[in-house]
Amino acid sequence: MSDESIRLVTIGRIVRRRRRLLTILVVVGALVGYGTSLLFPPRYTTSASVLLPGAWEERELLTQTQIATSSVVVDRAAAKLDWAGVGGSELRDQVSAKAAEGNIVKISGTADTPERAQRLSDQVAQQFVTFAGRIAGDSLDTEEAEQPEALRQMVVRTSRRITELADAADPGRTVESVQTRTELAKLRTALQEAVNKLDESDPAANKAGMVVMGPAARPSGEAPPTRTQLVAGGALLFFLLAVIGHLTAARTNRRLRTEPEIAAALGSTLLGTVDVPGARDRPKDQGSWARVRRLLGADVRWDLPTPRTSGDEAGRQLRYRRVYARLRDRLPAARRLLVLVPDGDETARRAAGQLVAEAGTDPSSGSPGSLSSPGSSNRGYPLLRVVGISVSRPMVPDRGTESGALVVLSAGSWTAGELAGIAEACADAKHEVVGIVLADPVLDRPTRSADRPRDAATPALAVGDNVTGGAR
C-alpha cells in the first residue's frame, strides 16, 4: 500500500471514530466564522472602465493604473463626493485599478452600500480621466502644446510660398523651369508628409481623449469574504485543525505496538497472544473530564487498527490453553503467580480472567485445584491471582505465597517507560516476570453456529483483584 493510501485510510479512520468530536468542532468553527462576519460589515465592490485610445506599452498602462489610484485623483474624488467623515486617506484603501486587454483600465471601488460603491467608482474614473488628460498635454495654454501648433503653421506658410514660386517660374518654356517646378512640388510633398508624421507621433494627439465607458454597474451581492464564506471557512478550518491535531498526536505517540518492543521493555519473554471477543471496552474513569470525553466520543483510541473478526469459541480456548502450557513449561515446579493487569486495560483484564479460568480447569494434575506433592512425578501447574497495577505509580505486593508475576496487557496502550516501571516494581517486590501475554480485541461473530452446542462456550468471568485459579 502506498503512502497516499495509508494517509487516506488514516484520515478515514479519524472521521469514522471521531465523528462526534469532529461534528462539534465543525459547528464551533461555523459559529466562530459567523461571529467574525458580525465584526466586519458587508462590503460591495463594482468597477468602471476607462478606454485609453492609441498605442500603449505595458509599462505605460501600469503607470496609468498607478495614476488612477494616486492620492491626487482619490483626494479630488473625495472632495466631489463630500461624504461625512470620509476623506482621501480612507478612500485610498477602498480604490484599486488594473489594466485589462484592449487598453482598458478598470477602476474598482468598495463601500458599505451598493450605491456608494457605484458612486465611488464613477467619480474616481472621472477624476482620473481629467487628471490624465492634463498630464498628456490636453490643455492648450502649455508650452508643449503651442510648439507643435506653431510648427504646423510654419509648414503651411512654407507650402504656400512654394506654390507661389512654382507659379512665378516660366511655365514649361525651358528645361530649367520644368526642373524647378518639379523640385518645388517634391519639397511641398515632403513637408506635408513630415506634418502627417508629426501628428501621428504627437502623444497629446494619440493618448489624450480618454473615455469612461459608461457608469459602473450597481453591485447585486457582497464582496468576498461574504458571511457564508466566513461560516464555511471557519467550519473547514476547525475540521482541518482537528485532523492535523490527531495526526500530530499519533506521530508523537510513543506507545509500544510490536511484540519485540513490549518484551524488551518488560525484560521477559512473550508467551503468546489471546483473543478477547467484543468491541473495545471504554475506560471506566469517573469525573467530569471523563464524562466529557465519553460525550465527545474521545474515550476510545482511534489510532489502533480495526479489530479483526474472531474465530469460533474452540479456537479462542485453544489459544488460552497454549499460552498456559507455555507458562507451565517455563516453571520448574508448581508455583503461585501474580497476574498483573494495568489499570484501565479492560481488554487485558478480561483476558486475565479467562486465563485464570483455564488454569483452574487444567487437567495436568490428578486433582484440579491443588498443588502436587513434592514426591509426585507430576509437576503440577501454577495457580494464578489477578492483581491490578497502576502504571503511573506501580506497586506490586511483596513476595509471599506468590513468587513470580505474569503480565497481561494490550498492545499499543502503554509506553516503554510505563512498562519499565512495572518491571522495576516487580523487581522491588522480589517477583520475577516469568512471561508476557498480549490481549488482542476481536469482533465476535454475529451469529452462533447451529451445530455447536451452546454450553461449549466458556462463560466470561468478572475478574477482581483477588481472583485465584485452580479451585472450583
UniProtKB/TrEMBL annotation:
Residue stretches making up the Polysaccharide chain length determinant N-terminal domain: 5-63
Keywords of this entry: Cell membrane, Membrane, Transmembrane, Transmembrane helix
Region Disordered, annotated ranges: 357-378, 445-472
UniProt xrefs under InterPro entries: Bact_polysacc_biosynth/exp, LPS_length_determ_N
Organism domain of life: Bacteria
Subcellular location: Cell membrane
Protein's UniProt keywords contain Lipoprotein: no
Pfam families to which the protein is assigned, alphabetical: Wzz (PF02706)
Listed transmembrane segments: 21-40, 230-249
Bilayer disposition of the protein: Multi-pass membrane protein
Biased composition (Basic and acidic residues): 445-455
UniProt record similarity statement: Belongs to the CpsC/CapA family.
PANTHER family the record matches: CAPSULAR EXOPOLYSACCHARIDE FAMILY (PTHR32309:SF31), TYROSINE-PROTEIN KINASE (PTHR32309)
Name of the molecule in the record: Membrane-bound polysaccharide biosynthesis protein
Source species taxonomy: Bacteria, Bacillati, Actinomycetota, Actinomycetes, Kitasatosporales
